[in-house]
Amino acid sequence: GGFSTGVFHGQTANTAIKVTGDSVRHEREVRALQVLKDPNFILRLLDFSSDAQGSPGAAEDGLCYLVTVAGTVSLAVALHKTGRISEAPAICSDILSALAYMHAQGFAHCDIKPANIVKHDLGLQPSSARWKLIDLDSMRPIGSFIEEWETWEFTDMYIPPEVASAILGDAPRP
Asked: pTM of this prediction?
């Protein structure tokens, strides 16, 4: 819900700044990025806003800020520009590896979609680029689905079928 991002080009690295007014989602994403540190799968957390107690939360202006290393392009933008992607096998391999890593750490992403998959160019050769997951504010611990599915925020077109069925009441909850 309700955020904006910007990519800023620095002297040593490009950074992405995510700004939101939702402190619950902000804290969830910061905590996820603090746990999921494997640079092969997740973009690195550089900084975040915190509340008066030092926990992830809103800054004095009431907004929450999250700074990560930036990807070079999202899959959504790449698809929009070309209509197809020649790197599909690499994208699938990288994202399936990222999901396996997250699941091994006990987490599910819960909002997989082209806009949440970004290419991270390591600056060496085109073959060194990796596709990574971003936007972890919908992430949940595996096993918490039954208790928390009512509070999820989804992208309708990308909601998992088993969760959609549970929400609509025509199947058991996941």
From this structure: 0.80
